[in-house]
Design a protein that fits this description.
Number of strands: 50
Distance between the termini: 36 Å
Number of helices: 11
Shape: globular
Length: 874
């Protein structure tokens, strides 16, 4: 039972030390602007040191900024570092705006007009959202270079103004001020002033013919330095007393970022596991996060959690006390603002009632979250439209390039912050979903800063191999084990506990597990962790970045090696156990993993690797390239073949359906092992935003193609010689929409509908650009596709066992065992009271029939082909 206590969120255990008064248009921002709603306030920073500046800001990038010794410090002398104010912007209302900040350059790099300190004003991104503005927005740059040149410039005008000052003022400290006043219709006066900290004016620039609209939008302070030729490390700039005011200044309290960011949770057999993602916090901030549930209009505390020092997450595990209804939750956290006041932040979400009574369970599946299109408002709206019961993010929640500024791999604390800022972008975009729907999230290669990953059981990559493709090709993890565990914990702690928690090499943890939810038994796998690196097994192939560059070598005929690993023995054992276990009223089995078990992809015959992919022509509707061939990309799970075949043979024993991503090419296909179509179906969902627009344009037709799409469907051998049947594929094509890098690369998402009454599975493949609010959305060509659960063991029957009639029990589990070798052929929970099992040999069989949570009856010595009915009563 939960103990009901007075809510910390309803009334903070701290009293705010400073009262805030909302001002109509006058604000004082001093570094953090924590009391942005105060009429006037000067903060005291002497006792605050923190890597996260505060909830009103986004730092570009996070790891380069901190509050230190009374200032906001940009700790690096590198380009385009800026601290963006989230909660305020310059509006299009007529009036006045002013902002000023004290700045001091902390390095002694040679004076240069390429190095400067100042502001960006009127920052705007491409997607009309303040989050996009904060990270990618461009605007008017106003500043002073370390040679002393004062300037105002934008994309159209390189430099306005030629005033110079003594550059030494930047090392001594000075105040930069910008004021904007509308004075005639659509025109504004801009005044840029530099003053001493004593208040004496150094120099002023004045312009009276700027378009007012140029200044509308967000603004930031900037520290911009080109790195020296010797690549030595230097600090950038220290800022304090950032002050802004004016009637044009508009306040948006809802735009604060942190310290509580987003939640992820699952519910497995009534147990809820929840992870709350946070920003970095400081020594004076609270050490715990509390969690409360709401029932009958009252909030009840569940528990409190310490904050993990690396992942910056708080963790909660509890039995859902209100399982039959949607239950609001809120996380609560108290922290010190920049004025030494104590503020309480709250994060609100919903624990959904497990939809046990629904006939149809809806899974929204997403993968490959490139940041073009951030913050994905269109996608979030579309997913909400489908009313999903479960979210699946199948990997590459972030890329090394996410948010700009490259990838920082050392030192460990900075590499952690670099990962977190990219992970924060994921939550900033999709937190509205993950806060309110159960979510399965699994990391893939880019999440751990790999282009490709062959984990080789967790061993480390030799430092001598560097960080590029050469290092990847030999297998293992490039980043330290502590860092890899941080990534995994941030993304997967909320999953049910791993079924076999023993770490792999270097102490790297595992997360493969089962999730039972609403009658669906989901297996969650780790495709990469144990996978062998092909370069170590196939030296003659000339492997580079996962591609065989020896053109006289054939992966279809020469790549099979018996001792290479795909899933690893532990995951294979798990799959065997999972496919046999129908307890807990499970009525369908679904596998969730990073990628599919074959290679659907073609390239021009002249291409020896996929480096050409981003440069390939995007076809117009109706166009078709003439010389593409199936490729052999060792990043896919088409290799090693024996591990792939073993997994498919195991999965079909439970008629399991497979959902995955990673390939950047949406597809529905059926696995083949000994023959075409003798395995289950796989749905590879398209990329959220496609950095690598792969395609499937085979020159030769497949076997038994669809009449509607005869060139791309049917039975094929992939580049590794694996049998596969392609049912539909979402090739990139020209849409006429902009930006073309987003809309012409077949971006989108998948929806899977699992029907309890019919046992049908419906796959929907949706383009990113469809506005479903009109009710007229169109899927990618070839979808929707409907199959039945029993289609996931596509092997043709040689014979049938007698029909089974069951009295006293509905929807029994039936297990078929071949008496010749004692092997389980398959097991399934049938629909209704009768079922006639198919078999693949004319032999003698044993049946186990009943409820695995109760009574199971055994019937032996059943001959295939017999027409005698089997009648059982329970």
């Amino acid at each position: 039972m939960l103990k009901r206590i007075k809510s910390m969120c309803a009334e903070s255990k701290y009293k705010n030390l400073i009262a805030g008064v909302l001002g109509s248009f006058f604000l004082w921002f001093s570094i953090s602007c924590s009391d942005a709603d105060s009429e006037q306030l000067k903060a005291d920073f002497s006792v605050i040191n923190r890597e996260w500046v505060g909830p009103e800001y986004w730092a570009n990038p996070l790891q380069d900024w901190e509050i230190k010794n009374g200032s906001i410090v940009c700790n690096v002398a590198k380009p385009n570092r800026d601290l963006h104010l989230l909660t305020h912007e310059v509006s299009d209302e007529p009036g006045y705006f002013m902002t000023s900040v004290q700045a001091k350059v902390l390095n002694s790099l040679p004076p240069s007009d390429d190095n400067w300190v100042g502001f960006k004003i009127g920052k705007k991104g491409k997607f009309n959202d303040y989050r996009d503005d904060a990270i990618y927005g461009k605007g008017i740059e106003i500043g002073v270079t370390t040679k002393g040149l004062m300037f105002v410039r934008n994309n159209e005008t390189k430099v306005l103004g030629t005033q110079n000052i003594d550059a030494g003022w930047l090392q001594r400290g000075l105040v930069l001020s910008v004021s904007i006043s509308d004075h005639v219709e659509s025109q504004a006066e801009l005044v840029f002033s530099l003053t001493q900290t004593s208040g004496d004016t150094i120099r002023t620039l004045r312009f009276d013919d700027w378009q007012t609209t140029k200044f509308n939008g967000s603004f930031s302070i900037v520290s911009h330095f080109q790195p020296p030729e010797d690549k030595s490390e230097h600090q950038g700039t220290a800022f304090l007393n950032w002050y802004s005011e004016g009637s044009k200044l508009k306040y948006f309290t809802e735009r604060k970022f942190g310290p509580l960011l987003f939640a992820q949770y699952t519910e497995h057999q009534k147990e809820v596991k929840m992870s709350i993602q946070m920003t970095p916090v400081g020594e004076f901030d609270d050490k715990e996060v509390s969690l409360e549930l709401k029932n009958n209009q009252e909030w009840t505390k569940v528990s409190a959690s310490a904050i993990d020092p690396m992942t910056r997450t708080a963790h909660f595990r509890f039995t859902n006390p209100f399982p039959i209804e949607d239950t609001p939750f809120r996380a609560c956290y108290s922290y010190v603002d920049m004025n030494m006041g104590i503020r309480t932040d709250t994060l609100i979400g919903t624990i959904r009632a497990e939809p046990l009574q629904k006939d149809e369970l809806v899974v929204a599946a997403l993968s490959c979250n490139r940041d073009l299109g951030f913050p994905a408002n269109d996608l979030v709206s579309a997913i909400k439209y489908h009313k999903p019961d479960l979210l699946f993010f199948g990997g590459d929640q972030l890329y090394e390039s996410t948010g700009g500024f490259g990838t920082q791999r050392t030192p460990l604390n900075k590499a952690t912050l670099d990962y977190l800022r990219k992970w924060y972008q994921f939550g900033w975009a999709y937190g509205e979903l993950t806060n309110n729907y159960p979510t399965v999230t699994i990391p893939d290669d880019h999440d751990v800063f790999h282009g490709n990953l062959w984990g080789e059981g967790g061993h480390s990559v030799a430092d001598s191999l560097g960080q590029g493709a050469k290092a990847q090709d030999y297998g293992g993890f490039k980043m330290p084990a502590t860092w890899v565990n941080m990534v995994q914990k941030s993304q997967t702690w909320h999953l049910p506990d791993p079924v076999d928690p023993e770490p792999v090499q270097q102490g790297i943890g595992v997360y493969f597990t089962e999730l039972k939810y609403a009658g669906i038994s989901f297996a969650i796998l780790e495709d990469r962790k144990w996978k062998s690196a092909p370069k170590n097994f196939l030296p003659e192939a000339g492997i580079y970045n996962g591609w065989p560059e020896n053109q006289s070598w054939s992966a279809q005929t020469q790549s099979k090696v018996e001792n290479a690993t795909l899933l690893g023995e532990r995951q294979h054992r798990f799959l065997e156990d999972w496919t046999a276990d129908w307890s807990g009223d499970a009525w369908m089995k679904v596998l969730l993993s990073q990628t599919i078990f074959h290679n659907i992809g073609t390239l021009p015959r002249s291409a020896i690797n996929d480096n050409v992919v981003p440069k390939l022509k995007i076809m117009k509707p109706g166009e078709y390239p003439s010389d593409d061939r199936p490729v052999s990309d060792f990043d896919t799970n088409g290799w090693p073949q024996q591990g792939r075949d073993r997994a498919i043979r195991t999965l079909r024993k439970a008629f399991a359906f497979h959902i995955a991503g990673d390939q950047h090419l949406g597809s529905t296909s059926q696995y083949g092992v000994d023959g075409y179509d003798d395995g289950g179906y796989a749905f590879c969902v398209p990329a959220i935003s496609n950095i690598w627009p792969r395609r499937w344009f085979p020159s030769e037709p497949g076997m038994n193609p669809s009449p509607e799409f005869p060139k791309v469907t049917g039975g094929f051998l992939d580049g590794f010689g694996n049998k596969m049947t392609v049912n539909a594929v979402a090739n990139p094509f020209s849409t006429g929409r902009k930006p073309i890098e987003l809309y012409d690369r077949a971006a989108g998402y998948g929806i899977v509908r699992l029907n309890k009454e019919t046992r049908d599975i419906v796959m929907e493949c949706w383009p990113r650009f469809q506005d479903l609010s009109t009710g007229e959305g169109v899927q990618y060509p070839g979808w929707p596709i409907k199959i039945n659960q029993l289609d996931n063991y596509g092997k043709k029957a040689v014979a049938y066992l007698p029909e089974i009639e069951i009295e006293g029990m509905e929807n029994a589990v039936i297990e078929v065992i071949n008496e010749a070798d004692g092997e389980r052929v398959y097991s399934v929970r049938v629909k209704g009271k009768s079922f006639r099992p198919k078999v693949f040999d004319k032999g003698v069989y044993t049946l186990r029939i009943g409820n695995p949570d109760g009574e199971m009856k055994i019937v032996k010595n059943i001959k295939a082909g017999s027409n005698e009915k089997i009648n059982l009563s329970f």
